[in-house]
Amino acid sequence: MKYTISIVILAIATFMLWGLGNTRVDAPMGCTLEAKICPDGTSVGRTGPNCEFAPCPEPDLDNEPPGEEGSGGILPYDSGVQGVVWLGPTCPVEIVGDRSCEPRPYPAKLLVRRAGSQTVYIRFQAEMNTGTFIVDLPPGDYVIEEDSESNSPPTRVNSPVPVRVVPDKYTNVRLDFDSGIR
Questions:
Q1: What is the span of the domain harbouring residue 78?
Q2: Distance between CA atoms of 87 and 148, rounded to whole angstroms?
Q3: How far apart are CA 36 and CA 54, in angstroms?
Q4: pLDDT at position 148
Q5: Is residue 46 part of a domain?
Q6: Quick check: pTM over 0.85?
Q7: Inside any domain, residue 136
Q8: Staple partner for 150: which of 17, 20, 109, 132, CB 3.0–4.6 Å?
Q9: Domain annotation covers residue 43
Q10: Would you say 142 and 79 are in contact if contact means Cβ atoms under 8 Å apart?
Q11: CATH no. for residue 134?
């Protein structure tokens, strides 16, 4: 009986040691969820068999102001766009001199894209009572337009507004939305 128990214990120990010794080293493993902030403000994660950071995107020198190549940087930026959103007309019949029918500040939901890109860079909303906004952006060429998926009731800005952001300055913009009142 003792002999049988000893054989069983020896068999279990051998099986366990054999199992530990045959672990696959090349088995897939997951990378940590760390992120690296790139100079343009985007982030990249770890990838590949060695879990190295993916390369940062190359700067788009075609969309940067002349002489400002590589002037991006890590947030926050000391540059961007600021402005006011107006909604008008506000009366079906405008009377000359009647200030109650002047355009009013509008808290529009807007988005910014890099010029020539369909990718949304940032979404934001103008202030409720003043229609003002300030958005920090790295230097470059952008377009500001209505976030048509978010505005209710639907309105429209006259067209996407092109904006050039230069280093260390905020570009002023006025956006005029059509209320549809006629």
A1: 71-178
A2: 15
A3: 9
A4: 74
A5: no
A6: no
A7: yes
A8: 109
A9: no
A10: no
A11: 2.60.40.10
Q: Which amino acid is at 114?
A: R
Q: Domain count of the chain?
A: 1
The residue assigned the tokens 């049988």 is 4
Q: Which two tokens stand for residue 87?
A: 């909604």
Cis status of the peptide bond prior to 153, with omega within 30 of 0: yes
Q: Which two tokens stand for residue 49?
A: 């068999």
What is the residue type of 157? V
Tally the C-alpha atoms within 13 A of residue 102's C-alpha that lie toward its C-beta: 5
The answer to whether 170 and 77 have CB atoms below 8 angstroms apart is no
Q: What pLDDT digit, counting tens, does each position of 85-128 carry?
A: 988 888 888 778 888 888 889 898 999 999 999 888 899 999 99
Best CA proximity match to 57, nearest among 145, 123, 121: 121
Residue reference for tokens 């961007």: 80
The 3-state DSSP composition of the chain as helix, strand, coil percent (nearest 5) reads: 15, 35, 50
CB of 151 closer than 8 Å to CB of 61: no
